[in-house]
Structures are given as C-alpha cells and as structure tokens.
Amino acid sequence: MSTSQPGTPPATGTSGAVWQRPVPSRRELNRDIALGLGMAFAGLVGTELAKATSPGAVDMGAGGIEAYLLSAAIPLPLCFRRRYPLAVLLVVSVLFFTAGERVPFAFAGNLVTQISQFMALYAAAAWARDRRRMKLTMVVIFIGMFCWLFYGFVKALQTDAIKGANEGMLSPYVSFVLLNTALNVLYFFGAYFWGRTAWGVARQRHELEQQAIELATQQQANARRAVIDERLRISRELHDVVAHHISSIGIQAGGARRVMESDPEAAKNALGVIEDSSRTAVNEMRQLLGMLRAADPDLDDEEFGVPAGKAPQAGADRLPALVVSATGEGLSVGFHQIGQPVKLPETISVSVYRIAQEALTNVRRHSTARSAHVTLRYLADTAVEVEVIDDGRPKHAPVGSRLGHVGIRERVSLLGGESEIGPRPVGGFRVRARIPLQPPPPLEGEPQS
C-alpha cells in the first residue's frame, strides 16, 4: 500500500523510473472527501431506487440493510483516493467483491458501485508514488477479478442460468461470455491506462516547470554576467581614457612648480592646462560613475574569466580599419561618414568603435547577410551616431544569447544616449546608437565639477 504523506518532497529525477508525483494539495484532498461522501449518499439513493423499481422481491442482505451498507461503504474510501491510492484500491476491491457475492442486487443494479471501482483503479494508476508496488497491486486485482468473472461463467453454465432466443450466430451462453469479457477488459484496462496517462502528463508538466525554472535562472545569470563583463571592460577603458589626463596634469604641475618664480606667465599657462585636463577627466568619469558605484568592489576580472591584460585602445577614427578587417569570407562591409568630424571625448570614441565591432561580429556569427554597412554620423556639435545595417536574417541554428545587445544597451545608456536594435521593416537587421557629446547632467545631490 502507498505510504505517501502530505509534505513528503517529490524525487528530483526526471525519468519515469525515479520520478514521484508530488503529494496532492490540501484543496485536492478536500475535494476527494467531498467526492467520497457525495458518492456514498448517491449509492444509498441508487440502491433505494433500484429496490423501488424492482418487479419482485429482492434480497437486501442481512437485516434488510446490508445492501444499503455496502452501497455506501464502497465509495467512502474514495475520500482518500489521492492520499492513499493503493490502500483505497484494495479496500474498494474487497468491498466490491463482497457486494457481488452477498447482495448481487445492489451490486448489479447500482451504477455508483461500478463507478467507484473504476475511480479506485484510475486513482491508483494516476497517483501511486511507488510505481512498482502499484503494478504489483494491479496484477493481483486484475487476476482476482477475472478469476471471479470466470467463476461466474462456470456457475452460470452449471445452473443453465443463461437463456435467450438462440437466434444468433452464437449460443446465448457464448455470446454472454464474450460480451461480459469484452466489457470487463475495457472496464479494468481502460481505468488503468487512463490513470497511467494522467500520471505521465503530470510528470511531463513537472519536468517542463523544472526546465522553465532552470532556463530562467540561467538567463538571469547570463544577463548578470554580460553586465558585469561590460562594466569591467568599460572600467578598463575609463582608466585608459583618464590616465593620459592625469599624466598631463602631473607633468604640467611639475613644470609650473619649477618656473613659478622665474616665469610666472608660463606657470599660469601650465595651471590653465591642468584646469582643463582635470575638468575633462571629471566629466568623462561622471558618465560611468553611477554604474561603477553599483558594481561589487570585490569583483575582479579573474573571477569571471576576463583577461587581466588591457585590450588595445580603439576609437571612432579606426572604424575604416575595422570595416576592412570585417570584410571577407562571403561578407562585404561598406563604410560611410556623414557630417563634419569633431574631436570626440575618449570614452565616446572608444564606445563608438566597440558598438560597431560588436554589431559586425553578430552579423558574421548569427546572420545570413552577404553585405553590411557602417555609417558614422556627426550631428553638428550635439551628438554622434553609429549605425550598422545588414541584408540578412537570423540563421536557423541557435542564434546566441543576445548578450552582446545587452552590453551595447548598457554602454549607450551609461553615456546618456539612445540605442535601437532590431529587424528592419525592409529586411535585415539594424544596430543604431546615438550618444550626446555633452555629458549628462549630474545626479541630484552630486557635486558640480
């Protein structure tokens, strides 16, 4: 018999041999209780109606109430059909057999009795957590029931109880045997296979839910990894951009100190350069300050597998070289520049290059495109825009995690810009980023430079 109890954790295996169906919820248990009590009442009513419509006197069993008692007792165990499915099946089967032997009138004329046995078989196949014990119990029940059915056939033959018009191809007795055998096969095996199908559906649903949870967790981890990798790369590039400003400040400060007394005008010019360099460095650092503050200070490059060495410095002026290197192996890449070029802050210049580089990498790896085009737009003195378009579509093979797009959006957002990434209405794919040349306004409460 099943020994599962509420609160028992299900096995974590996903194969049919090890997976155990989770125990029913409190709501399902309450429904079973209501079902068992309702069917017990229906059994009493059914027996009374059958008695009232019987053409002659009927045997109601011991004391004239045995038929009523068995009619109510057979469905009552269904109150626990999901909590103790194998125990319920055994009890219902014993009562089912007892009713058939003691009060055939209540057994044959009460439909509730037949339904109760069917539901007990179904519940055992659908809810038994020990599948080997369930199958063994089913074998015992089936053998017992069909032996009982065979005994009934033999008894009917001995007493010549089967009568008929004898006008068919087969004799009344043979027809009776075949018909009842077929009905019982459908009855018992139908309940078993229906219940086993319900168990398989529950297992599949559980596995899908587990896979969905795992995929969601993996997606969150990948997204966090992408953001952290981008932050680490931006922080290194920020160091490269600001380092030369700090070096210039140090050199100018040293020179000003040496000529402060002998050449005040030269010292004044040096101090002016120091002021300009420091202001530029502060403005560029502010663009990434919010993101870098949010990063965990204990994280380092090695923890996430990022090489400790610095990547080669790149900028918007190197886009033509990038286009040349990306051309080849079936992909033709063009380049076009619009507007009067202006000197870009180092952080923006590097970001323009990285965005184009990532977009072209995605075109080559994940698209069927045969051609692509990079456009660099200088929008007066207000913003710079880089756009990469192609004429392809995603490959049928897995197209990656799109973490590169996450990094592009993160980079553009930190610079106060806007990004547009997605398919084009006329076909192909577009990656476009517009970055303002002026730094975003400081956050409320942040000191002005």
TrEMBL record:
Keyword Nucleotide-binding among UniProt keywords: yes
Pfam family, one: DUF7134
Reaction catalysed by this enzyme: ATP + protein L-histidine = ADP + protein N-phospho-L-histidine
Keywords: ATP-binding, Kinase, Membrane, Nucleotide-binding, Phosphoprotein, Transferase, Transmembrane, Transmembrane helix, Two-component regulatory system
Polar residues: compositionally biased ranges: 1-17
Highest taxon of the lineage: Bacteria
Domain DUF7134, chain residue ranges per copy: 57-145
Entry EC number(s): 2.7.13.3
Region (Disordered): 1-21
Ranges of residues in domain Signal transduction histidine kinase subgroup 3 dimerisation and phosphoacceptor: 230-295
InterPro entries for the chain: DUF7134 (IPR055558), HATPase_C_sf (IPR036890), Sensor_HK_TwoCompSys (IPR050482), Sig_transdc_His_kin_sub3_dim/P (IPR011712)
TM stretches of this protein: 84-100, 136-153, 173-195
CDD domains from the UniProt entry: HATPase_UhpB-NarQ-NarX-like
PANTHER family cross-referenced by the UniProt entry: NITRATE/NITRITE SENSOR PROTEIN NARX-RELATED, NITRATE_NITRITE SENSOR PROTEIN NARQ
Name used for this protein in its record: histidine kinase
